Amino acid sequence: MGQLSIEEFHSPFGGKLDPNNRWVLLHKVIPWMPLESDYAPQFTAKTGAPAKPFQMAFGAVYIQQRLGVTDRETVALITESPYLQFFIGLGGYQPLPPFDPSMMVHFRKRIGPDLMKVCNDMTKANGIAMIQELLAESQQEDGTDQEQQKQLAAIEEELGVKPASLEADSNWGTLILDATCVPDDIPYPVDLRLLDESRETTEKVIDELFKQLQGKIGRKPRCNRDKAHNLFLTIIKKKKPKREEIREAKRFQLNEISRNLRAVDDMIHCGAVLSALGSQLYHKLLIASEIYRQQQDMYDNDSRRIDDRIVNLSKPHVRPIVRGKAGKKTEFGAKISISDDNGFVDVDRISWDNYNEANDLIARAMQYKGERGYYPARICADSIYMTSDNKKFCADNNIRLSGRPRKKQAGAEMQTPEQQELFKSDLRKRSVIEGRIGTGKRKYGLDRILTKLVATSRTVIMMAFFVMNAEKILRLLRLLFVLVVSIYFAMLWLWASWRRSGRLWAT
């Protein structure tokens, strides 16, 4: 079965869908059928319920990211809108939800970073091809004036396609690099709160294990639940608790967790089984025991730092990322490296551990060459990328590495007025990627990642930048459509003027 066309979509209310609607245009831009073949091998036809097609899974995740709504609200919007139902691949409007909201979690798991990368590349190539075809048709028309020709040239320049007049292996294009942190939806990590949550987790484990041992042991192991929680509340509610009070509260919580963990070990020796706890509670028990180890180590050494520090019980993969930004010296979330590839944004690296983004420049430039066959003509980056290895690589491959030099190098490097003007031009160009980061955090949910799993968080981060690229293609298509219509009416006016002049000449 081929890709559904707009004429084949059945609407019980009569009429047809608007072909210029944004969801209809986007439906044409994304190559659904080739991507379905990359998505299908995850499933088998012999076991389990029939899987939802790729168009439904990817379309639902895209709708959620684009509109910034919850899982339930996404399903509700799809149920109410025939345009959204057409976008996710339904053959006609149906008043019932196409899937349960809980399926959104599975969709985000199945659409991993590799598939997102393929989808982004194929959609970008398909959208550029569509725009180039319309540009070729528009440039052949005789009714275009000078202003319209400039607008068509500006659209062609935004596509980031190398002109055919240049040599095939010559460097061309601009690559802009930067890194940022996308914060996760967690409260500010306080050690005392983290210990209190870990203690409550161990108490829940004791309750569940005691149910397995009823009749085998006399009584449940003692836990000072109320006393420990009240002590936590007493300290946490104070505006400025003393350091000695915080340390004493930590000591009490650590002792309670230690006794609870020993009680769990004793109950296991008596016949309790941890596998009966359920995967979620068992996973939390493992995290709570690691939190106890880390906090006990910091308490004994009177330190505030430890490697691979866990800052949230529900999201143990989140790490503190020291950024040094104004107002936010430390952020808690994933650090990502992104690149603006001639107007289109790609996610090059996602990590919850801190790293030096300067090491990504050479790999990203080589990836650029692997995709096109030539290096970019210039790379615009921040001062952290101005290392000796990066400068040598760019000089050897005739790439202009433009960025603000480091403080030690700033006084040593003298620049001519022409070089200073070129540097200012590249600096203005580099500000584009700052706008991309701001748009992602302000509009597409990168200021607070709500998903809890590593796999789903990766999908959400990459989907945000996919939405940016798709929106750019849609913007160029709309702009081109307006120009084509204006050229068409200009040709009609010229033809009508020619007919009128012919009649006047005949009379």
Quick synopsis:
It is built from 17 helices and six strands. With 507 residues, the protein is α/β, with parallel strands linked by helices. It folds into three domains: 6-158 and 464-495, no CATH class; 174-185 and 320-450, Nucleotidyltransferase, domain 5; 191-301, no CATH class.
Question: Please, could you describe this protein's structure?
Answer:
This protein has 507 residues and is α/β, with parallel strands linked by helices. The chain folds into 3 domains: 6-158 and 464-495, no CATH class; 174-185 and 320-450, Nucleotidyltransferase, domain 5, CATH 3.30.420; 191-301, no CATH class. 56% of the residues lie in helices and 9% in strands. It contains 17 helices and 6 strands. Strands 1, 2, 3, 4, 5 and 6 form a 6-stranded mixed beta sheet that branches. A hairpin with a 2-residue loop joins strand 3 and strand 4. Helix 9 packs antiparallel against helix 10 and helix 10 (225-236) packs antiparallel against helix 11 (243-269). It is globular, with a radius of gyration of 30 Å. The model has no long low-confidence stretch (mean pLDDT 86).
